[in-house]
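Hi everyone,

Forwarding the result from last night's run.
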Amino acid sequence: MARTLRWAPLLVPLLLPAAESRVVVGAFSEGTLEGWQPERFDGETAYRLSRVDGRRALRAESDDAASGLYREKTVDLTETPILNWRWRVENTLGRLDERSKGGDDYPARVYVVFSGGIFFWKTRAINYVWSNHQPVGSTWENAFTGNARMIAVRSGPEETGRWLGQSRNVRADYRRLFGEDVERADAVAIMTDTDNAGGRAVAYYGDIWFSGK
């Protein structure tokens, strides 16, 4: 089951003003899912707005399933290359071989998608994942497609049950992973999935936004 999102080639650019220094993609703390759409792969992960530790967030629960939510939004990475988000994972999934198709499951992941337009085979994605056991900072090709690359930004069960903030320079990551420059991103997606090896995972996603620094 390929992890390249089927809708990516159909994205319609929404160009943002160059002066904008903060581009909000997910405002879950405000209790809204405006602009987010479902994408189902195998079974259905349950997503709903919820509260945890007194904070509003998006709760994801996957039980032997894989589906995600995505938002189409073209972001100028020359102005706002930094992706920021908060997340919390309640459990990880053991020592899966995440580099294989049978182990391509993660308690939480945030995608950035770069559309190939009519050249759909050129559509690429960076997956920022909470890995089950891969070392933080490690990277690898997705087991289903070479057009998607994985980066472990958190790993293992030691920090589960805690809110953690993340920031990544998407443009710099793209250069490092694909050996080319990129000036825009076309969509962001989130997914908690447990369909390949089976199992159950619960995670929470906080607000997601791009910034200049």
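The chain has one domain: 16-211.

Cheers,
N.
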